[in-house]
Amino acid sequence: MSKFLKFALTAVVLAFALAFVTSCGGGSNNEPEAPTPTPTATPAATVDATPQPVATPPPRDLGGIEILIANWWNDDCTETFNYAGAGIIDRMVWEHRRELEQKHNFRIRNVRVGNWAAARDLFPDLLATGSREYQVMALEPSWFLALNADGAFAPMPMEHFERFPEVNWQPGHLELSMRNGHPHGFTTETFTSGGIAFNMRLFEEAGLPGDYLFQLQASNTWTWDNFLRVARQVRQFDAEGNITVWPILGFHQDMFELALSSNNADLAGIDPVTGLFVNTTTSTEVFETLELMVQVREEMLASHEVDFDDAEWNYFVDAFNAGHGAMRPGMSHIVGDIQVNDPWGWVTFPRGPSSPWTDGYMGGVSGGNFMAIPHVFNPDEVDAIMYALGLWNSPLPDGDEDDWMIGQYANFYDPRSVEETMALWTRNPDWLRLRVYRVLPGNIQLGESFAWRVWSGPDGPSASNLWGAAVIVEEAQQVWNENIARANAMISGR
Length: 494
Description:
Strand order of the largest sheet: 2-3-1-4-13
Largest sheet: 5 strands, mixed
Oligomer: single chain
Radius of gyration: 30 Å
Order of helices and strands: EEHEHEHHHEHHHEEHEEHHEEEEHHEHH
């Protein structure tokens, strides 16, 4: 998903006033009074009321520093930017950043070090050997917390963030990165956890308006109850009673995580006193989420891998594109997989019963990868790197808060997917929350503990003794307590 632009405008007005004093006299009758001698006064010094220009300090020269940001997804810099093939907003961002690089004498380049697994294995080795090859590393939250606990990254005093208040520094990430009173990592990413793609043709075949989910979302009635009602209505069968159109096609873990966020639920929390992680899997919100998943399973509203012959784990991608599913819940990146030949839309996941926003929808922040500077760089180097990154992430000087939409329309069939769904989060940031369990370091066994258990039970996907919500929560406690204990051991030095 693309980055959302937030803009802050500051106006400074200088006012100059010139006061004039006029004196006059009057008598007690109509007869003229004798003239009063005017005392001689020393002439006052002449004051120039013309505002004087304020000297503008020269731009900070960063000495030609080159900042390489190691990641696992792209190589790019201002020199390699494909201007001709870019959209208008990407061009504006490129022009802004190119001007900043020239004005402040620095250069930033993203470097792809390999795929996800390669980056995961490479970064600890580079940090352990004191490598200065990359000035910044992009790390998954769980990687970052484990490495940060070992002192792998340089401290970033808050002044680095305070001097660029217009940048979208995520406060949750700054807090999680704290060691010895200073942040050691940050992110400017804000991605909602996802939504639901829906096939408009299949909705019409079921007797519903093709844009029905847009209607429910706009009227603030897109709830779990309506989600289940719609799912029952859009399901189709053949003459033998076999399901030919599944209400829901998708990765069950994605749907579980989306439901958690929509219900204000989390599998972990942070103790406000100790700052340590706590286990929240026994909360009412989590139990309600699992009950929803179990109900979807019991009513056969969502398919499973065994429902398709010779299916791979991601069978739902092709199945939805072929018109075998009415709704596909998933994280935001699934939009790139959707190649259905029918009209389709994109809405948020429906509101759960425990959401505090009765007039809106809860969304989960995917966490955002941490950006961190290796510990081998000294404070002066860190200062220069952070200054450049602050400039780089600053908003366009003359932009509009909805400029980001221009680059998003090409990703969707219906513009309402952008204007009504994606805009929910840019216009209502309070509806978003950081999913704490997603930043726990180590293998947290999310699927094995929760989502997969809904369909698989203890003996596999075809087992007849599938578990209910209470048993899933109970069986998960030992593993989840171990997850929390391991995470707290890693961060206890912060």
